[in-house]
Every structure is written in structure tokens, then in C-alpha cells.
Amino acid sequence: MRILLGLVLAAGVLWGGYWFVGARVLDRQVNAWFDAQVAAGAEVGREALTVAGFPNRFDVTLTAPYARDPQTGWGWRAPFAQVFSMTWKPWHMIAALAPEQQITAPDGQTLLLKSARLRGSLLLKPGLDLALNRAVLEGEALDLISDRGGHWAVDKLVLAAGVDATWANGMRLGVEAQGLAPDPARLAPVADLGPTLAETHLDMTLQLQAPVDRHLTAAGFGVTAVHLTDAHLAWGPLVVSARGNLSRGPDGSAEGEIAITIDHWQRLPDALMALGLLRVAEKPWVERALTLFAGHSDVPDRVQVSLVSKGGQMTLGGLPLGRTIDLPVAALPQE
Fold first, then answer.
1. What is the mean pLDDT of residues 51-77?
2. HEC assignment per residue over the chain
3. pTM, 2 dp
4. Which own/partner pairs from 99-104 qualify as long-range (CB within 8 Å, at least 24 positions apart)?
5. In whole angstroms, what is the distance from residue 239 CA to residue 243 CA?
6. N- to C-terminal Cα distance for the chain?
7. Cβ atoms of 227 and 205 closer than 8 Å
8. Is residue 328 scored above 80 in pLDDT?
9. Half-sphere exposure at residue 163, Cβ-oriented, CA atoms within 13 angstroms
10. Which among 240, 241, 239, 238 is positioned nearest to 192, based on CA atoms?
């Protein structure tokens, strides 16, 4: 009995020692990361950092964290941010963000993001490479309010990224938004569509030139192909869907085709303006193009058109759009 008790006590001491050593290492690494970003010219900081959760969790809390990109002008700050992980499973992390966060846009606009729940999950593959397995960000009852009067809301938002073994270095990306409500001030021309989008969905896979792991900064980031499985938007009778593939050509430009289907296409220009995706001066051009495409359709309320990227040029239904996009290739800065 005494031997068993001794073993239990010894195990408890070792486990407690493991937690305190791990907590000190974690505290030192997080502080070192902040110091390295500041030394590199980034504007990041926090008022305090604490590590708690003894004995079974590592709970990291940042008080008043902030970050700003001096090159783009985007900034973010919040009352707190927390990251949790179990001591026996440190490769699985859960993040919790404050119910109110402040975002600064490059034009000086200040955005207040409110949420009933905003959490993230990061799952790495066990091993020294720290390769990404899956990452998810989930938000509920989100409100984005501008100090200039704009207001957007969404009932539920899910952003996800995960390994897609179908492709070499495949990374599958997904977006799902339910009850997306654009700024009410923009909705008058599309009142018949309703105040919210019933469904906004994106499912795509990027083929990268290297896996997403701790070696990414040395390998650089590059997209070699885009596989768009399904992009879907439903707003009242207006339904827009797209699918197709693009690959990086010898000169780095995208080559391939995206098939687009639009039901009740007549409502699309006003809907794009309500979503802030189309300017007033561009609306007549879009209306004329849609009318032209509809003239070749067997279904009066449906437009089916292909976005083709080839030889450095992009066309939509045969209409030239100009220079095609380049699939990004970038060397990331070394830590």
C-alpha cells in the first residue's frame, strides 16, 4: 500500500513539475514572439500575459492585445484573447475572443465587432513539423458596426481550413454564413429579396507549393492551382453559383475556366450594389452584359456563362475583361 501511495505521489510531483516547466516555457515563447514582431517593425503588444490552468490545461490570457499593420493600415484590438490546450494534447488549441473587438480600416474607419460567441480551434499534426491539420473559426450573432453609419450582421459564420489529401499539398477552405444581413441603408432597391441572404457558401481547395507547417517561412507561400468545388449565394429568388478550376501557368498567371450560373439574373446588379461589390458607374455595363448573356440562354431568367483565363487574358462569356490574375507566389519573412 505504501509503495502504491509513493508511486501516486511521485507521479503527482512529476506531473506538477511538467506543468510548471511547460507554463514557464510557454510564457517565455509567447513573450519572445511579441518581442520579435516589434523588432521586425510590427505594431503588436498587450498589457499583460498570464498562464494558468494547473494541472491539466495551459490557459494563456492576453489582456488588451492589439495589432496593426503599418503597411496596409489595418488594425485590431480587444479587451482580451485566450488560448486553451490540454497538457496531454498541446497540438490542439482552442481560442476564445472577446464579445467586443475594434477594427481599424486603412481609410481611418473604425469598426466595432460584437458577437454572442466567437471561438476558434487549431489542430496540428503531432510531430516536430507542427503541420496544420484543421483550423476553424465560428461566430454567432455577429454585428459589424461602423463609426460612419454602416451596419452588417450575420446569425452564424463558420470559416474552416483543413488538409485535403486528394491533391498534393491540398488545403481545403470553407465559408458558411447563415442569415447574412447587409447594411439596411443599402436595401431599398432590393427590398423584394428580403433583409437577409438565406445562404452564402464557399467550398474550394488550394494546391500549395509547400505544406503549411513550421517550415513555411523558408519554403515560401505559393498557390499552384485553385479547385472551386462550389460557390453559392441565395438571396430571395436570386441564386448565384460557380465552380471550376484554375492553375498557375508558366508566367505565373492563372489559366482555366470557372462556370457561373445565375437564376433571376435581373436582380443581380442591385444585389451587388447592396453588398458593396459594385459601384454606380459600373452598373450599366453589368446590366448590358447580363442582357447579352441572357439572349443566348434557353431559360429566360437564367444566365450561364464561363469566366475563362488563358494566355494572360481573362474573358467573361467571350467579353474581354483585361489582364488575368496571377496566382500568388511569395517568399515569407524569416523569423
1. 91
2. CHHHHHHHHHHHHHHHHHHHHHHHHHHHHHHHHHHHHHHCCCEEECCEEEEECCCCEEEEEEECCEEECCCCCCEEECCEEEEEEECCEEEEEEEEECCEEEEECCCCCEEEEECCEEEEEEEECCCCCCCEEEEEEEEEEEEEEECCCCEEEEEEEEEEEEEECCCCCEEEEEEEEECEECCHHHCHHHHHHCCCECEEEEEEEEEECCCCCCCHHHHCEEEEEEEEEEEEEEECCEEEEEEEEEEECCCCEEEEEEEEEEECHHHHHHHHHHCCCCCHHHHHHHHHHHHHHHCCCCCCCEEEEEEEEECCEEEECCEEEEECCECCEECCCCC
3. 0.87
4. 101/76, 101/77, 102/76, 102/77, 102/78, 103/74, 103/75, 103/76, 104/68, 104/73, 104/74, 104/75, 104/76
5. 14
6. 53
7. yes
8. no
9. 14
10. 238
Euclidean distance between CA atoms 62 and 82, whole angstroms:
6
Contacts of the segment 119-122: beta carbons below 8 A, 24+ positions apart: 119/94, 119/95, 120/94, 120/95, 121/92, 121/93, 121/94, 121/95, 122/92, 122/93, 122/94, 122/95
| Amino acid letter, 214 | R
pLDDT at 8 over 60: no
Cα–Cα distance for residue pair 324/314, rounded to 1 Å? 5
Cα separation of 145 and 184, whole Å?
12
Out of 29-38, 105-114, 212-221, 251-260, which region has the weakest mean confidence (pLDDT)?
212-221
- The three cell numbers of residue 178 are 447563415
In this prediction, residue 251 carries a pLDDT of: 83
How far is 314 from 323, CA to CA, in rounded Å? 6
